Amino acid sequence: MVISSIDLKDGHVVQLKNGKNLVLQRDDADKLIADFDSYGEVAIIDLDAALRHTDEKGNTANTQLLTSLLRKGNVRVGGGIRDVKKARKLISLGAEKVIIGSAAWNTGRTDGDPILNVAFLEELVQAIGKQRIIISVDAINGKIAVKGWTETANISLIEGAKEAEKYASELLFTCVEKEGCMQGTDMEQVRSLREAVSCRVVAAGGVNSLDQIIQLERMGCDVQLGMALYTGAVKLDESFVGCLNWDKVQGMIPVIAQSPAGEVLMMGYATKEAFQKTFESKRLTFYSRTRDCLWTKGETSGHYLELVKVRADCDRDTVLATVIPHGGVCHTGSWTCFSSAADEKSSMERLYAIIAERFANPRPGSYTATLNDKRVREKVMEEAEELCDEAESREEVIWEAADLLYFVSVLMYKEGVTWQDIYNELDRRHKEK
């Protein structure tokens, strides 16, 4: 599968040739990550941090932008991560994985010394877990490249990779001499690396076509793309479909539809043409085996499924589609095909959506629409007091807690705070410890 890359330098999104020469510069990072995350993971690289262009606090011209992107997708982040404190902070802010480059290597070693910075990597594994660590095995002419690719260490790619996988769930290999050149990557180097290690391998540097992406996928490697995406040489929707294991499923991929809250809604099958129509229309489309034709959910009922993103499973033979349902999903009228309930289950997100709708389209007699800023804050304090001082039985606690959560949700809406913002803060606190 393709991992889209957003490289940051001087506060801009850039693409460099051989890691040095500026080829492209953009200022639409929010749009890019929204588009990229629809089809897979996103790598965000702080090039200034990699080159040590930092202030006394370790920040760069990209820090604020990078931080704002961390929870806008399935993000891995790299560039200048040289200590456990910074890695832990990035994870707490929303990064799913961190990419460790120069800090992983014992570049000043003499004969007999380990090739890795073992003390640092062991501390890092202890702090955030091996599953969250990616080690860069970038290479120039077969030697590990360090310090923003400005130097090479006396460590061969294969030797370094075999040691590095002891401390990482993935290895990111960039063929530096091919990076940004759009001339194809070094397939033999990638093949040798893939055969040498058992962990996940992500290849980058020079990949310039759908055919090469599919070759690397069949080899068992993912691809991290930059220049090919920005120039339009490769399209993410075509890459997603091309990387699926069509031989295994005989032309039809099972697709599981789930709501943004994670509730399973339905399952169907999709052909390549069905995926193409899904991506073009942004409405989930299947292949009807009984009618032998494409079928867009909701084309007769109007209860369509608006596409948010797709993810392939590890075997590339099943797809999970996150969708926004517009009406009941099942043909019986039920909210999902796995329940007879007519409505979406109650949740904080559903409550928030109802509150938002009441303010946007107030109905006659709507209590919610009458709540101004002063009154809602008074009600939060009032309900909190009742919960703490008056609720004695289990039923009373439930009743008062429901009242409190309702008014808290109204206050959040008025302040532009979502429940996802609250979950993110709780996640940050959990991971920071």
What is the helix content?
25-40%
The helix tally amounts to: 16
Largest sheet: 8 strands, parallel, barrel
Uncertain residue segments: none
Number of strands: 19
Q: What is the CA-based Rg, rounded?
A: 25 Å
Mean pLDDT: 91
Instruction: Give the class from helix and strand content and strand pairing.
Output: alpha/beta
Report a brief summary of the structure:
With 433 residues, the chain is of the alpha/beta class. The chain is 36% helix and 23% strand.
Notes on the protein architecture:
This protein has 433 residues and is of the alpha/beta class. Helices cover 36% and strands 23% of the residues. Strands 1-4-5-6-7-11-12-13 form an eight-stranded parallel barrel, surrounded by seven helices. It has a four-stranded mixed sheet with strand order 15-14-19-18, with helices on one face. A three-stranded antiparallel sheet has the order 8-9-10. α4 runs antiparallel to α16, α13 crosses α15 and α14 runs antiparallel to α15.
